[in-house]
Fold this sequence. Notes:
four-stranded antiparallel β-sheet; globular; 46% strand; mainly beta; single chain; three-stranded antiparallel β-sheet
Amino acid sequence: MTTPPDRLCSDPRSKFYDEALLARGVGVKFNGVDRDNVQEYCVSEGWVRLAIGKALDRRGNPITLKHQGVVEAYFRDEAETPT
């Protein structure tokens, strides 16, 4: 697979969770900035869910906010390869 999926989530309870892809390393650029706190994204709809600091909800999951904008997903191993 050369491109990441349109939608991916890091929560194992989600139907958009894929452990193999997360282990491979998926990077996300949101509005041109490489983000490392993305919990879920959707490229076609143009949104990301970003974790807010170290705050957790009562179930121990990170508290997230949904942001609209330009989303670009890529595999980290391909981005590190010099061309």
